[in-house]
Amino acid sequence: MSIPKEPRQLMINIMYLVLTALLALNVSAEIFNAFDMVDGGLKSANASLDEANKVKIASINEAAKKKESYKAYSDRISGVTTLAKMADEYINGIVDTLIDQSGDGNHKVDDGDYVDVEGVRELRGKRNYDATTRIMVEKGVGEQLKDNMGKYKQDFLSFIDEADRSAWANKIPINIDDESWKHSVNKKKNWADFTFGHMPLGATMPIFSKFKNDIKASEATVLNYLAEKVGVGGETIVLDKYTVVSAPKKTYVIKGEPFETDVFLSASAGNDSKTGISISVNGRNLPANADGVAKYTETPSSVGIKKYNAVISVKDPVTGEVKQYKNEFEYEVGERSVAISASKMNVFYIGVDNPVEISAAGVPSNQIKVSMSGSGGGTINRNGDGTYTVKVTKPTTVSESAKINVSAPNLNASKDFRVKRIPDPRPMLGSEGGGSIGNGTFKAQLGIYPKLENFDFEAKCDITEFLLVRAAKRQDPEFAKVSGGRYDAKSKGLVDKATPGDKYIFQNIKCKCPGDPAPRDLGQLVFDIK
Fold first, then answer.
1. Confidence at residue 407, expressed as pLDDT on a 0 to 100 scale
2. Helix (H) or strand (E) holding 117
3. Which of 14-28, 439-453, 483-497 has the lowest mean pLDDT?
4. Where is the domain boundary, 420, 438, 455?
5. For 352-360, what is the mean pLDDT?
6. Range of the domain at 511
7. Residues 103 and 159 in one domain
8. For 240-397, where are the E strands, in sequence order?
9. Are residue 180 and residue 87 in the same domain, yes or no?
């Protein structure tokens, strides 16, 4: 699109660019700080699990030296750690792909995931939700991840004696909720769409860290089993550093949707009689499952930042001392909104394709329904790239308008547009629009044509007829009526007679533009031959 010369149109274009930028900021910086806080807590928990597992492996190997029958269990350690490493690298590979596809591939700084921005570690492309939707949902990587996590759970169980597997199956903390999406208000098509669809990249980082935590915790569970088999009780391994962690399914929700999060104590051995874990959120006690995980749910009734306080009490398995750990978390509640904007001008023109962009915050594109009503005889169709094209057939009056209507679950919006004919083009002879012209230049032209000035659409108008008048000094005027814009034989003969001092008048110039029911009058051109 060329840069418009008219100040008003230039201002409209600038305002559109500003609107586009504002739409890209529909998730606040504070909520991404919350993502980073949750992700950091999970990564810290993962590091604690790695250190604890190293200690446990050493204990198992040491015990196996004391009795030959224990060697069968210590030999399984290599397979367990290899499986955990392979699963961890698989998840890292998905994360790296998402980061690269979000524009970070050429910006490797520190560990490749983050860059330092004024002293704050910030993920590049964290607001990008196209890569997460395209890769995790449309390309099926999310469903593959779900299936692989289930397979990893079975692989971990294979290191446990068959007679003990049923008792230990529920202790492997890999659990994929494949039911909630089926009851989602937004009608998700599968688990991947529910978990990753239209999620900003920054919001998915804690999800992947949670999966990695499940892998490492599963590794720890199998090692606990092997330790018991070789006579190393779980009570000999003491985890003395605890962190309260909240793992929400989503940290940005729409008003009326439930907010749901898992609250648990990292580096915990589970909610058994030895640890005595007690969990509460905002003063409400929550039941914890066998893995020490409690589920907290609330449905917000207003928009804005919502905070919740989690308190976990745990009994030290060695000293019997009860310690309490607290942390505060937050999430943001948004409200569905619609932006409807004509891509070029805030008006529709008859006879051309009028591009329109429509976006609804918090609503998948496949749930948005768009239609037209009002004056203008308009129709609207969706393009392959997600934009829309409007076609109109008649201009609107001052009191009329063409209306675009948008509907989605819990959302209805509309916007009015004026409808106009394509502006009158300017008749031109070559590069001249009238006045003095050289004799040679005048004779070199083949006819006249209409020029659309300051019009940003692809449109072509045609001259349908005009009357050519030659007025020479001390001679009677000569006339030639021409059909179309090019000279015919008679009019060309008049042009060839041109001499300095002659005056040529192009009268009754008629033109037809796309959408015109009849030709329009463009006035006249007057040239003085010099």
1. 87
2. strand 114-117
3. 14-28
4. 420
5. 86
6. 426-529
7. yes
8. 243-248, 252-254, 259-266, 278-281, 284-286, 293-298, 304-315, 322-334, 337-342, 347-349, 354-361, 369-374, 379-382, 388-391
9. yes
